[in-house]
Amino acid sequence: MELIQTQRGAPCLINDGLRYRRDKKRESHATWRCCLKGCPSRCTTDHSATVFLKKPSDHTHEKLSTPQIDIEKARTSVKRKAVEDMHEHVDKMVCEEISPSPLSYKHVRALKSAVYRERCKLRPTIPKSIEYLFSAAEYPAFGLESFDVIIRDEPNKILIITSEDNLLHLSACENILGDGTFKSCPKFFEQLYTLHGYKDGIYSPCVFALLSDKKKPTYIRMLQLLQSACNERNFTVSLATVHTDLEVTMISAVHYIWPEAVVALCNFHLCQAWYRKIQAFNLTRDYRDVKSLVGRWLRLVFALPTLSADSVREYFLTTLTDLMPDTTKANLFADYIYGTYLHQDCSCPPIMWADIFIRNVKTTNACEAIHRHFQSSLQTYHPNIF
């Protein structure tokens, strides 16, 4: 005999492959009747439904199959865990429930839906406008108890969520990584931008900023609010390097707020941008051909980040220029590399992307992995903020 819950949250008794719903409840006992409509079977148990006071009468139908009972038990278990720990990862709860049982992974979606439905009952009403978010006074009631620093800038539609411990950790990190995500960003905002601190080989997401766009003034305002929050708590931001992708607006904002900080570009995004230009100039076949002179030259270009920032420009203008095949496509690609990454007035000078081997952090892939892991826990794109 086992007591579980139905999909609607009502108590359900399972005994010998048969289900019973509670019919009447008294101080000393409870009466149960078969869940199948039309079946006259009834039974009586004590108050805690552990002992039969009156055994079940005969049923007019077959017993439930074992998989049906297992899925009912699993649903009850994950719904209980969903309420006990609101911050537990959904996938983890479901996998822990499926692993020891004969259930298959086709039941995963049903169990996930049960978790989301149960948690939605405890969450506040979904906001219908961004004004409601900024006017709400009690953010802890929205499940943000662990974040004691909420920074709101309604005119610029910026909402920053963090904590004093996170700010203290971020201020002590010499390497800060920034990355934005769009699919998992809540409604009414354009992107969720996260600042991660890197210390002792560990990446830690510290600041979550909901932004209305990707423009330079928005990034500047976000960093200003963050700097002010640290100053109010006497936290000195001692960063030496800010790691980001090739987003020019964010790079400019970092230079504006922290002029002495070094901006380091993600090597993955850098090479990705170069390869996209190879595709745009129809050089893909040459790049993949190991016997092609153009392909060999292109692969030498991809080795530029391994050189020092002081020598990379000279190496490109002398050695690589001499080795470059005299083709129109190769010349177009060379002009792109020099104009964007090597020219004296370029937007991404070598100091941002060269000397790759001496960096502690070479890419921002760890940040993107955290975003992908977070996104995998969501059922839909652009979920509500709660």
TrEMBL record:
Domain of life per record: Eukaryota
Pfam families, per database record: FLYWCH (PF04500), MULE (PF10551)
Protein name: MULE transposase domain-containing protein
Domain MULE transposase: 179-272
GO molecular function: zinc ion binding
Alphabetized InterPro entries for the sequence: MULE_transposase_dom, Znf_FLYWCH
Assigned keywords, A-Z: Metal-binding, Zinc, Zinc-finger
Organism: Elysia marginata
Domain FLYWCH-type, chain residue ranges per copy: 4-61
